[in-house]
């Protein structure tokens, strides 16, 4: 399964002994012929410069160019260049029943108008990872909301059309609809060309690493995504491969670290961990949540940590550790992407979320550098759940006035902290090509 990054190379060639002898004889014969020709010609007004010289006592003579033996210098190999690419990730895709009603129409469900303002921030990047928190409705069933979710399959179609390349699927709602829900979710992602990580239909599928590739020149970088959840709200898990789980109360990072190390053994140059944890509606990470992230950073197995589940934006910090010992960027929680949550049900911050933009530089020696930025987003629940980038609407939009836009932006700013800079424009692709590495359904 391993396919390491490829590097261009060239090798100078040197002639063997037989080639050297032949060259010497040819030069001698050429010199004699050239001398005879020189003596038979009238004295020239100017003598061409010789291409070769000899210490032997003989009249100076020019050697015809066609008889000269010259060594063409081998071209210098082009040095490998760094591969740079952008990756965006966002918070929970959590379509409550009111969200589904906003997307419903005469011809079925269409979520694209709700998410349209975010599309440039998604499609502009080389890679885009969403977090699909809920299962897709199994055939013969109807979409449902809290507490046992399932979304129409059109949601996955519209995520793909918006520019997402894949989704993490491990969450506390992964098995809300049992085995059939897991199967329906992965079938919908497969049908729409989206990669997925965090749940599986078979043990064999669970053992596979979810890969993406980015390439520039003759170098190809493999990006792995792993996805884990703290639990399933007490819902039974028929088989352990249905959803990747870890013990959050014990801050047990071992399963996540093992998956990251396996991804690297399978050929990953970059590993992104999507972690669904821990306590909802809290801007500040819990002690267990922070310890979990610190252990993952210390392992050196993960390049970027992306957190989910809290439904509110949380800090973005550079934790000590990481593969190169230069730290691991950690987004403890990206809040919500598309949901119905607001102050009416929860806390005011649940109306908001973060689009995380990570810029990766993979050097010729395969060392990875990561820089991150954040973009504040919101959902206008009263305007058919229309989504906005807050800095794009300073004067307000829909039912949101300028003062409310500023208030929501400030809540996001206060939550993420000041370690990472804000980004107010869509990400741009930096690599020449990028793609999800899709495998046939198990």
From TrEMBL:
It is an enzyme of class 3 (hydrolase). Residues 44-65 have a biased composition (Low complexity). Its EC number is 3.1.-.-. The keyword Transferase does not apply. InterPro entries: Capsule_synth_CapA (IPR019079), CW_Biosynth-Accessory (IPR052169), Metallo-depent_PP-like (IPR029052). Pfam families: PGA_cap. Residues 44-82 are annotated as: Disordered. PANTHER family: PGA BIOSYNTHESIS PROTEIN CAPA (PTHR33393:SF13), POLYGLUTAMINE SYNTHESIS ACCESSORY PROTEIN RV0574C-RELATED (PTHR33393). Belongs to the CapA family. This is CapA family protein. The lineage of its organism: Bacteria, Bacillati, Actinomycetota, Actinomycetes, Micrococcales.
């Amino acid at each position: 399964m391993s396919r390491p990054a490829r590097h261009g190379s060239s090798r100078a060639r040197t002639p063997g002994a037989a080639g050297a002898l032949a060259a010497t004889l040819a030069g001698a014969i050429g010199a004699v012929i050239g001398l005879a020709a020189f003596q038979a010609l009238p004295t020239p007004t100017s003598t061409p410069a010789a291409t070769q010289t000899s210490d032997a006592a003989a009249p100076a003579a020019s050697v015809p160019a066609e008889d000269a033996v010259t060594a063409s210098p081998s071209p210098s190999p082009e040095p490998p260049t760094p591969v740079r690419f952008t990756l965006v990730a966002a918070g929970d895709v959590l379509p409550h029943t009111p969200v589904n009603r906003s997307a419903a129409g005469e011809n079925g469900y269409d979520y694209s108008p709700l998410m349209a303002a975010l599309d440039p921030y998604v499609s502009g990047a080389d890679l885009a990872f969403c977090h699909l928190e809920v299962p897709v409705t199994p055939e013969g069933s109807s979409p449902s909301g809290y507490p046992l979710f399932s979304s129409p399959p059109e949601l996955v179609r519209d995520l793909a059309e918006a520019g997402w390349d894949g989704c993490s699927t491990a969450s506390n709602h992964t098995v809300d609809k049992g085995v059939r829900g897991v199967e329906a979710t992965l079938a919908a992602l497969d049908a729409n060309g989206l990669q997925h990580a965090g749940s599986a239909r078979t043990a064999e599928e669970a053992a596979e690493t979810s890969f993406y590739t980015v390439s520039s020149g003759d170098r190809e970088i493999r990006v792995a995504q792993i996805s884990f959840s703290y639990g399933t709200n007490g819902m039974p898990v028929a088989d352990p491969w249905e959803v990747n789980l870890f013990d959050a109360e014990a801050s047990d990072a071992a399963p996540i670290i093992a998956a990251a190390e396996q991804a690297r053994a399978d050929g990953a140059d970059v590993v992104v961990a999507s972690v669904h944890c821990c306590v909802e509606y809290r801007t500040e990470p819990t002690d267990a949540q922070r310890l979990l992230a610190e252990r993952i950073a210390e392992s050196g197995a993960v390049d970027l940590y992306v957190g989910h589940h809290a439904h509110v934006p949380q800090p973005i910090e550079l934790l000590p550790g990481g593969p190169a010992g230069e730290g691991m960027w950690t987004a403890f929680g990206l809040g919500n992407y598309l949901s119905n949550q607001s102050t009416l049900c929860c806390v005011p911050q649940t109306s908001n979320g973060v689009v995380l933009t990570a810029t990766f530089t993979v050097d010729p020696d395969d060392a990875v550098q990561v820089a991150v930025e954040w973009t504040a987003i919101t959902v206008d629940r009263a305007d058919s759940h229309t989504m906005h980038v807050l800095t794009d609407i300073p004067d307000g939009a829909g039912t949101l006035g300028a003062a409310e836009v500023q208030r929501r932006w400030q809540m996001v700013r206060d939550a993420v902290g000041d370690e990472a800079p804000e980004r107010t424009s869509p990400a741009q692709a930096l690599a020449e090509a990028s793609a999800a590495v899709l495998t046939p359904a198990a």
